[in-house]
Amino acid sequence: MEAALNIQQYEYVLFHLGQHLHLNKSIKDSLVYGDNDSIPKNKIVFKASNKSLSTAKTVHYKGNDIPLLFPNNDKEELFEWENDSIIFHHDILKSAFYLLSGYQETLSDKSDSMGRFKYNNSIQHQLKMVRKPIVNYYFEVIIDAIEQFSQKHNIAFERKRMFENFGFMLTHDVDRVDYYHWRETVYKFLQLAGIKKAHIDKTSLKKAALNAILPSIFPGYKPDPWWNFDDLRKLEKQYDFKSVWYFLNRDGSPHDAKYHLEEQRIKNLISKLLNDKCEIGLHGSIKTATNQEAIANAKQRLEKASNTTITGTRQHFLKFHYPSTLNIQQNAGIKYDTTMGFAEHEGFRNSYCYPFKPFDHDANQMLSIWEFPLSIMDTTLFGYRNLSFNNMKDSFQYIIDEIKKFGGLMVLLWHNCNFDEYEYPGINKYFAEQLECISNQNPESVTGIDVLSKV
């Protein structure tokens, strides 16, 4: 990305800056972006960069090290006064656009086995900044400058904050619902035989397989640990937490749901969750990430099963093509997506802890669909990262502390089928403790529909 921002890209950054302060006409008219050497009077001047990305420049601002991706010179100051104007020496707007718009994902043809953009190929990995919402820091610098300018020139100035403390959107992807099913039990014995890959030690696997025989033959023999919706809601309601449940569809892939949306038990479950003030969303199958007809059909089926309008989605396996999947979702009438997080690492894939509108680089325009960035996924922590419970708690807290600085949104994904004590001993106790820890920090519990009402 060498050229300076064009007008659509510039307006895209300002649109999101407007989530943090009231960009009235007087302030907007004071903003100047370009590479002209002359300094106009009584303006806030952002010096544009026509250079390519650089990862060498870091500045210190209010106790934080902030990478600048498009520096113009060696100056350490982010901005200074000159001729009654404020001058930004480095292209902080272009830096914000590069991260927020997902520009890096248009440059890489390398993907993982699921066709996903890899964390190891990201600038967040390169600069070790995935757990910091750098775009929020950029905006804070810009707002500080605008506040100083407004005070000097008697311009009305008012900050905005989405949440008083932070928002907490607790979500569940419903991939599977039958732990005690012959298919799952047979699979465990195939793992014991070495035919299928095992993820736990053989002693635990043997116990799990043997203990599953009778319940798999006699349904109802004992409670199914994957049909745990009442228990999860009971726990969540202890802390007045709402939750969003994304139901997976079936359309021909072995990775699809092992249940049908039309099953009466599923329809009854959805009705119960809706009555409990939860939200129902679509967990789009692998096919829906690339097929317009597939996502339209899946949405229609779920709406019929739930007797409600489906507003939000998350793609199965976080399988996502930027921005084509978003266009597919948008064309299907989806209002928000919450897929965009790295599977391999918790944090901020677009370096931003607020909802944002994605940018279609081919069309050079902002999309209408909203993205609610995924902060933390369960399998990231104990699967990809193999963290201990204590380290998981530490990472949770680090991310919460970052989000709280800006009154941002934390989106947590925890699968209903990830409470297996054989595979993850102590996981139920840990999850309960983690919810209590989050609750003690006074978040505002929200669903995706709630968030839409705020943006």
Helix content: 25-40%
Overall mean pLDDT: 94
Structural class: alpha/beta
Low-confidence stretches: none
Biggest β-sheet: count, sense, barrel?
Answer: 9 strands, parallel
Q: How many distinct helices?
A: 16
Label the overall shape: elongated
* Estimated radius of gyration: 24 Å
Please count the beta strands (DSSP E, at least 2 residues each).
17
**End-to-end C-alpha gap:** 29 Å
Percentage beta strand? 5-15%
Notable features of this structure?
single chain; 455 residues; alpha/beta; 17 strands; 36% helix
How is this structure best described in words?
The chain has 455 residues and is an alpha/beta fold. The protein has helices at 7-17, 25-30, 92-100, 123-126, 134-152, 182-192, 202-211, 213-217, 229-237, 264-275, 292-306, 324-331, 378-384, 389-406, 427-439, 448-452; strands at 31-34, 44-47, 57-61, 64-68, 79-82, 85-88, 167-174, 244-248, 279-284, 312-315, 336-337, 359-360, 365-366, 370-371, 376-377, 409-413, 444-445. Strands 7, 8, 9, 10, 11, 14, 15, 16 and 17 form a 9-stranded parallel beta sheet that branches. Strands 1-2-6-5 form a 4-stranded mixed beta sheet. Strands 3-4 form a two-stranded antiparallel ribbon. A hairpin with a 2-residue loop joins β3 (57-61) and β4. α6 (182-192) runs antiparallel to α7. The longest helix is centred in the N-terminal third of the chain and has 19 residues, at 134-152.
